[in-house]
Write a structure and sequence with these properties.
It comes from Candidatus Methanocrinis natronophilus. This protein has 286 residues and is an alpha/beta fold. The chain has a seven-stranded mixed beta sheet, with helices on both faces. A six-stranded antiparallel beta sheet has the order 8-13-9-10-11-12. Helix 5 links the parallel strand 4 and strand 5.
Amino acid sequence: MNEMDEYRVPEQGSSICRIARLTKTIEDMGSRWPRLALIYSEWLYGDVVDKELALADLRVGSSILHVGCGSLPFTALLLAKKGFIVTAVDNDPVAVDAAQRFVDYYETDADITIQIAEGASLDASSYDAVWVSLNVAPKEMVLFSLLDSMRSGAKLIYRNPQEKRMLGSLYRRVLPGHIGHDAGHKTLPTDGVKEAVLIKKGCSSIEVSQPTATSTGGYVLDDLAADQTARVMQVPDYPVIPPLGIRPGKLVTVQCRHPFGGPLVLEVEGRRVALAREFAREILVA
């Protein structure tokens, strides 16, 4: 995977799928010809990262988690070369291996670590800031989960397509309100088609109601109201779901339903996790 196609479940034959394949081809070529990759990265990401850093206003030496680094971790490497302590993750083991080779090739003294992980199950509590690539998906679920684990004062920077631009018609534009942050955010165009969104974690977590022990029968998870509990009967085969602990036979409680089509906040075995509606509609409960 790469920074343009990680964590996604595109429809076959869609424009997004074709763009993802094209970008992956380019970056796979870059993994074989690192000098070409360096030119590509400086052209595509150099100004973008500089603008994102200006928006984030971080001190040099701050710790950064980058979700969706891909096989050529341009963003992570550029951040590390500017003096930040960077952990870059991707959920594709092949991409992670390629990313490590790419970093090793440059023999950089920058502080960068490459790891394999699912974005929706990461603990971001030890980082000063979190970067999320454009095409991480399911975007709302990953963003909500990261925000939920971040410490107060930490900053989340994620990439969006600009409204009424070419990418806006191809990629879902996630507004801060979709993940419960209507206020206290900033947005900055970073190139002709993308923008960066900054959210600073507040002093308190999102308030949720305490669950009650009720159950339903013959529904999908998205049918449940807040405070309802049900047993999972069937789960679709998507790799982002098992790390959340949502498996057949498990009890899940809906703690909160975010407005504007935002994620469900669930309690599963004592954990609070966020699940995108698109997946909740395919999970059978009773």
